[in-house]
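Morning run. Coffee first, then this:
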Amino acid sequence: MKVLIVEDEGIIAEHLRMIAIDTGFTPLGPASTMEQAMAYGPKAEIALIDVGLVDGSSGLQLARRLIDRHYTTVIFVTGAPQILKDGFAGALGVIAKPFLDAEVTEILERARHMRLARGQAIVD
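And here it is:
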């Protein structure tokens, strides 16, 4: 299963990529702009998305596009979780930075099980 990493901080992006690999996922990216992320959209089953992107675009807008166009399961990873205190329709959850590896692993596993139960896995 493929997970898109959308994070503009290189060290955090690499950390998320390694957690995804260790959890049995194939990482896409990292992407740090809306344009880069949308190029991966058709292949991304799950996306870990930072709220603020390097090009000034909004991770919230990106999430809406990925959900609406590609049925991507979205998980936000942000240093400002209060922005999402009321939730975000279609998102599975929010991971606050700094995070523990176990938090990321747990929500990725939950996303995988949810997609498989719904028959939403992309077959290459």
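The CA atoms of residues 85 and 94 lie 9 Å apart. Good start to the day.
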